Amino acid sequence: MTGAGTVAAGVVGTPVVNITIFAFFVIATLVIAVSAAGQNKTTTDYYAGGRAFTGPQNGIAIGGDYLSAASFLGIAGIIALDGYDGFLYSIGFLVGWLLVLLLVAGPLRNTGRYTTADVLDLRLKAVPVRAAAAVSTLTVSLFYLLAQMAGAGGLVSLLLGVRSSQGQDLTVAVVGLLMIFYVLVGGMKGTTWVQIVKAVLLLAGAAVTTIWVLARAGFSLSALLRHAAAASPAGSAVLGPGLLYGVNTASKFNFISLSLALVLGTAGLPHVLMRLYTVPDAREARRSVVWTIWMVGLFYLFTLVLGFGAMWLVGGAQIEAAPGKANSAVPLLAFQLGGTLLLGIVAAVAFATILAVVAGLTITASASFAHDVYAGVLRHGEADPGQEVRVARITAVVIGAVAVAGGIYAKEIDVAFLVALAFAVAASANLPSILYSLFWPRFTARGALWSIYGGLISSVGLIIFSPVVSGQARAAPGAIPSLITDPHINFAFFPLDNPGIVSIPLAFFLGWLGSVTDLHPADPARFAKMQVRALTGIGAERSDRG
Amino acid sequence: MSVTQSGRGNVSGYEVVHASREFRTLRRHLGSFAGPAIALFLGWYFLYVIVAAFAPGFMRIRVEGEVNVGLCFGVLQFVSTFVITIVYRRWAQQRFDPQSERLRQRLDARRKP
Q: Between A282-313 and A329-367, two packed helices, what is the crossing angle to 10 degrees?
């Protein structure tokens, strides 16, 4: 157990070994992306991998897209520091999938081509709605990207011993470059294979570490919990809810707001929904989601053990002292268990996770810009497909640059927390209009615009005026410090970190209000077409294989 | 592809299907499965959330060793998610897909000259 000594110096393990394992993973995934890429000339190739993936393949890839660093590092880290309350994240992240399975997967596959804006366009045929859907897709993707990049900075600095600020910034920039490369060369097909490989490695890595932790506790969950509680300064309080979200009434409502965002956010995440278009039909889309649910559920059961394992074997003080703080709990646990080698493997898996998710987000954001904004709005739906793919590639580079800049700024923040904000924006800005357009006959373009912009502005606005951004320079115990660390700047008036409890109902309400007060009532023919297509799959986009 | 690109004339065709008895039955079947399933899992989830937020003492009651009600309640959320997934998959394969498939084939046949 040389852990304490090396961590104090800021590095865990041997940087040379870590760098070697990292380099191996990076090269392996690059080879996969390049060899799987194919031609990528048509938009269907570039955005949807030719729609030729099977349900199980796509299900695993969705799992790889969804189980981000926030899940692997973030949730386990929250459990390691604050106990049970981290588990609340896992449950919301999993249960939300039922909404995707029951309402969204099949109908969305049947009625769209590449993006959720396609679905709204089929129903409402309005250019401003397409533009609005693209704006919200881009916003959610950027929020999510920021979270992943922040995680990448902390992780790599922990492993490579990069302590200087410039060094960490450089690492974030390298992650950005790699992801741009995956997306440019691999398109959706290459990105998907990177996600599949990563998902399998992630599940295997988490399984091995989980079994290892359980073995140390004599395969007794009760013993693991007892050791963890004994190692924590909070004692047995860590085994029940409340350390993070039970401090006062505001934090309890904050928790309810977070739970609402988690359970409704998944069905509005553009990078997850876009993956539904990579399979031949609605049945395969549903099969994908079934596979994803099994994978995600299993994985979150592992993180529970990993979190309490880190609390016991690493200890909160050491995690807090490490670069990346909560995000470093799992790598430190791996080092404690299996030394340099296991640390290197787990960290490389985490790094691959970040790369794969970031690539998935980038391709979604670039598709949204090229397909919806460029081809749909600027070229009125008459863009040359080759030109559209070129625009998508340029967008990917721009988004990469923006993500690098944001990641450098946000590198100290817990990733699970940032991702939860992205979920709140997704549930507010995307979900109401998707559900209304599929299932509500009276939904109109005006309702869609009110709902999308209302949800987007209220969720992002409330985050800006919340303690997340200002007013909490020195965090209370259990709370997360603000982005603005100057204690004199405080423009927070919204007491909750997560805006979901206000912005989600508001977006649903605005969608209803905008529609019923619309002077141009909904076109029953469009709704008929939408529903018949959504439920029977007639006229749905086919796979390249025909 | 032929249906999507065939212009205005077919829109009324969709309306005819939309109003047909078979389609309404299909939609009712979906609604009578998905509606209660969603109400069930959302209700069960928010029950858990509210108990966790406002009755932490209940969650701390020990069940066996250090394993408490909170942990069991949380794991049961996983179990319910898996169960709903399995039941839905079976229902969709046995009930929904055949109906949906029949309707699509009839539509396809009608549209191809």
A: 150
Q: From A257, which residue of chain B is nearest by alpha-carbon distance?
A: B49
Give A468-477 contacts, CB < 8 A, sequence gap 24+. A468/A421, A468/A497, A476/A247, A477/A247
In three state form, how does the secondary structure of A282-316 look? HHHHHHHHHHHHHHHHHHHHHHHHHHHHHHHHCCH
* CA distance linking residue A406 with residue B89, whole number of Å: 41
Of A225, A245, A527, the CB nearest to B53: A245
Mean pLDDT of B15-23: 88
CA dist., res. B106 & res. A148, Å (int):
48
Q: Are A361 and A70 in contact (CB under 8 A)?
A: no
**Over the stretch A264-312, which tens digit does the pLDDT of each residue have?**
999 999 999 999 999 999 999 999 999 999 999 999 999 999 999 999 9
Residue B40 makes CB contacts below 8 A (sequence gap 6+) with B84
The torsion of the CA quartet A433, A438, A441, A446, rounded to 10 degrees, works out to 20
Tell me the residues of chain B between 50 and 69 that have a Cβ less than 8 Å away from chain A.
Answer: 50, 52-54, 56, 59-60, 64-68
Judge whether B23 is closer than 8 Å to chain A, CB to CB: yes
Name the residue ranges covered by the structural domains of chain B.
9-111
Is it the case that residue B84 has pLDDT exceeding 60?
Answer: yes
Q: Output the pTM of the full model.
A: 0.91
User: Which residues in chain B have their CB less than 8 angstroms from residue A294's CB?
Assistant: 82, 85
B12/A529 Cβ within 8 A: no
Give yes or no for a contact between A33 and A258, defined as CB atoms under 8 angstroms apart: no
Residues of A in contact with B77 (CB under 8 A): 91, 94-95
Comparing C-alpha atoms, which of A162, A186, A151 is closest to residue A73?
A151
CB contact under 8 A, A88 and B52: yes
Asked whether A89 and A255 are in contact (CB, 8 A), the reply is no
**For chain A, which domains are there?**
3-536 (1.20.1730.10)
